[in-house]
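Supplementary Note 3. Input sequence used for the single-chain structure prediction.
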Amino acid sequence: MGEALSSAYRADRGAVLARLIAVVGDFDLAEDALHDAVLAAAETWPGDGVPANPAAWLFTTARRKAIDRLRRGAARDRRQRSWGELAIAWDAGSPGPATGPIADDRLRLIFTCCHPALELEARVALTLRALGGLSTEEVAAAFLVPVPTMAQRVVRAKRKIRGAGIGYRVPDPGDLPQRLESVLAVIYLIFNAGYLPADGAELVRVDLCQEAIRLAEVLVELLPGEPEPLGLSALLLLQDARRPARTDVDGRPLTLEEQDRSRWDQAMISTGLERLGRAHDLGRPGPHQVKAAIAALHSCAPGAESTDWPGIVRLYDQLYGWEPTPVVRLNRAVAVAMAEGPESGLSELEDPAVAGALRHYHLFHLTRADLLRRAGRVDEAAAAYAEARGRTANRAEHAFVDRRLAELGGPDGARTPDPARRAR
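The predicted structure, written as discrete structure tokens, is reproduced below.
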């Protein structure tokens, strides 16, 4: 795939696929048609040049490819009845306006896929795979499950949609709140997949982070009286504000403590704090608001040593009431270590409910390694760093671990005071 096509695909895939699914009413057909369009672009763009509107070109070509596929299909194919609808002559530069209470195609599709007939994890996995443009491997990493398990969930979700006759339509306004939890989860996981990709050379996939931020803002506009969309939007802004300082000049990751906080985006932080305040004023707390409050304490502290770590521990206690997951306990252990010392944090991590559930999660091993290093347990720290390195394919993360291992090899590297917080 050429550079121009690769760029267009990453930037526009979600929007093009969302509109295709809305038109053809079939998930697999839309994906196949878009794949055909990408192959056609790879053949024609080198000779004809990149079109002025790559997204419109891909959509128009994919729509034609979908018609071709349906025409070639047997008459018994239930999808055959709808192929004529695809022949609507939309202008190549404008695929046509979205209609209904949700004006954004991608958000409309997220709400559609988050149908109550599907299990929560299936809803999230399916929409991450489609709109987030994530590979099955990346979606599996987001859920901390094996790749085959995630592949089966996605297949079952598609079959459920077909078998139950779930239409790709805009939900009625009254149906929106009951799907909100799933939609929030999808947007948050899209952001997380961009904030720390499972593989590749980049520490951040900016396109995914920006798309999640955009979708959260659309959701705030759609449901202005709901506090959790405001909380999610605040959380994403507060976290993304750190992006300019998350790597050194060579692109190697820096921990939260190592970052130059003067490089954090203060305008983005101000907007995030304002949205968190609006959510708080609505008087209905929720997990995304609590996560945003944790991010706010980091954002408002001039340095790691002046951060309100006991306050962050209390917020994690609240969060655990909504989300009783090992990952929440992992993050809480870091805050405990910062408030009470590394041995206290390690004690939290030794709980089998945490260590057992997260044994395949590289950030568990990385966090444990940092706490062991701070506690002066050099050999154990080195082993934990090596374990973490082997459980991620992200080369930027490899560089971080290699730096830590090199420091451990020095005369005093393991005993240099350096907080363990890995959030970046």
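Residues 71 and 335 are 60 Å apart (CA to CA). Residues 1-86 form a domain with the Rna Polymerase Sigma Factor; Chain: A fold (CATH 1.10.1740).
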